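Exam revision sheet. Question 4 asks you to relate a sequence to its structure. Input first:
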Amino acid sequence: MSLTDRVEGIVHEETQSRDRGLDLTLKEVHEIAEPGRVDFGGGELAEAELSAHERTLRNPGDEYGWWYLDAGGYLLEYNETLTEGEPLTLQTREAVRARGAFHPTVTVEDLGPMPLWVGGNGIRLKENARVSTLLASDGR
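Answer key, structure tokens:
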């Protein structure tokens, strides 16, 4: 089974399909407005309160907006979702890492919120930007 068989909501398969994986695209960027809680037994576990980060049009008439992210932490939301199956590896796309932002490389069974850390003077991300690469768990 190919990665494209496991992923729903692909924005543009030709562009997103890579020799070594499938790029995932950015739907939304969230800020953590109020912290969540994690305890030992799970009885006091609580979700963080999130707020959507403001998107800006660079030019009047643009169809897609940009997120201007300062240094710090954010949560990404993808356009794509995963169907059931074997776990897959998710890593930061090289183009994002080269510009000073990254998220952890993780093994995933679903595509929930992904923490993104931005360093230096920040980064600009466009709506639907390819920000992560999904690999088969064997690296293919």
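Marking note for examiners. The CA atoms of residues 70 and 122 lie 4 Å apart.
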